Amino acid sequence: MTGEPxxxxxxxxxxxxGPLDLAALHTAFEDLVARHEPLRSRLIRQGEIPMLVSGSTxxxxxxxxxxxxxxxAATAAATSDLAVxxxxxxxxxxxxxxxxxxxxxxxxxxxxxxxxxxxVSQGVLLVDLETLYQARREGRPxxxxxxxxxxxxxxxxxxxxxxxxxxxxxxxxxxxxxxQTSGRLLLPLDNPRSARRGGAYLDFTAPTGLADxxxxxxxxxxxxPFVVLLTAFRLLLWRLTAQRDTVVGTPxxxxxxxxxxxxxxxxxxxxxxxxxxxxxxxxxxxxxxxHASAMSAYAHQDLPFEQLVTQLRPPREMGxxxxxxxxxxxxxxxxxxxxxxxxxxxxxxxxxxxAQYDLMxxxxxxxxxxxxxxxxxxIIDATRITEWARQFWALVxxxxxxxxxxxxxxxxxxxxxxxxxxxxxxxxxVLAWAGTADRVEPQGxxxxxIAAAWQSLLGVSPGAxxxxxxxxxxxxxxxxxxxxLSDTFRAHVGVAELFEYxxxxxxxxxxxxxxxxxxxxxxxxxxEQLLDGQP
Length: 535
Fold this sequence. Notes:
The protein is of the alpha+beta class. The longest helix has 20 residues, at about 120-140. Helices cover about 40% and strands about 20% of the residues. Helix 15 (about 505-520) packs antiparallel against helix 16.
């Protein structure tokens, strides 16, 4: 429910058939922003440290009349609007967009910046917005209990919680658990990596009855459906890469306090699951091993993923995320459908986002299993994803059939080549990561200055066409970069623009435009100094 992977905008989108009270909806959204502090936050500067502070910001609501133009026009307009970056320095960090197709036919999009919401938060926002909307329509107070704490209170508590011996123990656990691995997954690629990612998704439904068999297997092995499905996914990765030792990320909602249940904020953390596919082990043993590994990882999930990456400093490659390139998750229910705001409702998927990872597989457990495969279509073709999905369901079938079967006896797994040796692995990585050697060094004063700022913040030397987020950057990195470049060039280098221009070369072109605009207002001598790189 949180939009395209890698997007800086989390969103939910619905088509609503039925009457809407637009005035009540607008006022209800104002109430929603007033209720949840992160939605009315903005970025301020304290030295070089970016801080989100709450305050009063304009509420961002718009209605676009597309009467008679059809659903395709609405989804195109909504996708285009989602591509517009938030202004972190001015707010607001939430938007409500309504696209009218007919008097009783609308597309509603609720969007927020990914720094201030996660999937659970989106659910909270939807429930609260509907409650506030009905209250406004009926002219009565909303039946929402006041929030006892806000996200800033939780953040302060977390800083104290993740300190001292606890932080030391968590860091030691993950350092030991992930020793001797770069996390690099050698998936076969169809195209060389480049600085800019693509983004696409495909949905696949499991064969009839597989959902019940997964649930039965989970009970028999005293584990969860997630572990059963993860075991099959681990075997798929072994088949695809010949790597027995693989790393997979899984997102968790880190809300340890009861007070956070109805709170809006970014609580999501990525837990790293390392596992081994032993061809001589039985499926029973493999499931037990995955269960033990997952339970241990969950018990140590409080260390933020960004801190883990900073601590481990894994190799970074153009077009690839550090440590985790593949994400696997399981959800217990499908997306929202039925009714919303008093109208019949169907969820809409808006595409066009940029994949954050090479591959993200999300299995939804309902009457039958469905799986959404989000992938970087700049490097992996849809036909390959379709084949991987077929193999995955076949492995789920195998894992839930005969627990005493050896892994190597499963069709398609007996002929997996040996795990590459260290020397062979280096060769395989060069082939699998083709294109990463096509590095272009930063050239000229602007590119070199911006690259130096990146290196200071990320601890890695970027090429001219490397993308900031592919090298481990995140939202606060962009804010720090904005402050640093603004000081260097004595011009306002905007956060929103740095989100839009994500490579060294693109940011250099943007800064050059800023300097030329500034130069037009200077004397000839001042202009010459500025353009010679003496801001």
